[in-house]
Amino acid sequence: MIPAVLPTYARADIGFVRGEGPYLWGTDGRRYLDFGCGVAVTSLGHAHPKLVKALKDQVDKVWHVSNLYQIENQERLAKRLTAATFADSVFFCNSGAEANECAIKMARKHFYAAGQPERFRIITFEGAFHGRTLATLAAGGQAKYLEGFGPKAEGFDQVPFGDLEATEKAIGPATCALMIEPIQGESGIRVAPPDFLNGLRSLADKYGLLLIYDEIQTGVGRTGKFMAHEWWGAKPDIMSVAKAIGGGFPLGACLGTERAAAGMVVGTHGSTFGGNPLGTAVGNAVLDIVLADGFLEHVVAMGQHLKQQLAMVAEQHPKVIEEVRGIGLHLGLKAKVPVGDLLAAMRREGLIGIPGGDNVARIMPPLVIERTHIAEAIDKLGRACAGLAP
Length: 390
Hints:
The chain is of the alpha/beta class. 36% of the residues lie in helices and 19% in strands. Strands 4-12-11-10-7-5-6 form a seven-stranded mixed sheet, sandwiched between helices. Strands 1-2-3-15 form a four-stranded mixed sheet. Strands 13-14-17-16 form a four-stranded antiparallel sheet. Helix 2 (49-59) packs antiparallel against helix 9, helix 3 runs parallel beside helix 9 (277-290) and helix 11 packs across helix 12. The protein has two domains: 16-34 and 293-388, Aspartate Aminotransferase, domain 1 (Alpha-Beta Complex), CATH 3.90.1150.10; 50-290, Aspartate Aminotransferase, domain 2, CATH 3.40.640.10. The model has no long low-confidence stretch (mean pLDDT 97). It contains twelve helices and 17 strands.
């Protein structure tokens, strides 16, 4: 008999009843150190007092009015995002997949409005994950996610990740954009090679294309910059963000330059709940913290320290961990044992990580962690590895 909740997830045999800072308390009565953040979502930890206050204050005012009316919180958040990034305008939604749908539509509409409707194809990269709608599945191009859902949505061409020559060869008269995650998260924390994003920016400029960044997992401080692409300096024309922007409350956004968004006029796109007063109240509270002086420097320092400590564990347990990957607090452990076994062993020790492709355990702690939390995590990881070593 099918369960009441559609069985589309391979869930661990544990639930959680309370969270505070970097910790979760499970239905088994144990306390866990959360180094997964619900897949890089609760980046300021659980029940952050500033986020809780922002949500409670807004709950007592108004929850929903729809985008048929002015929304003060939304206007403020949009102005702050454009001030902090390359963008001139923002569309708000509820999730990463919706943000990517908007990015795809924006790119195609740009060329339609410019009198070039034949330019609708987008070049994406092997190993990408852009969401689970039919369009974003096609953009990602991974067969395991596409299987069983009918013909792949037209308009996406995949090339090898990091291969500029293959990218240029794939550009044709119907190409409108290049779309990439600066760091592929679901595929196992695969960082774009040095100068690759700059190379894509040059190709976009050379052929008159739009450059789209999917920063859903890497954005809003995760790597130690507000947006990960800032490490390389190559600005996009369109960018999707979600996850951490709401600190745990569903919120997504698609950012674009004035040029890129020129075709997105009244009636071309919409969202019932996107940018509602609750979500944008929390989003503004998130920016209060992440954009405060010294915050991102703290993320860089903690990321460097955590990566060094993870490398030491890898050296001590070479039969369990092969490699440490990533930037800032967006890290991954490529395992030599099945990654599910490693994550289960970590949970037994009270440490939570997230599975990724390429047999990688993603390590994505709250951005507010301190050295004491890292020491605790390394102790738990070391014990987990010791229990798995042949």
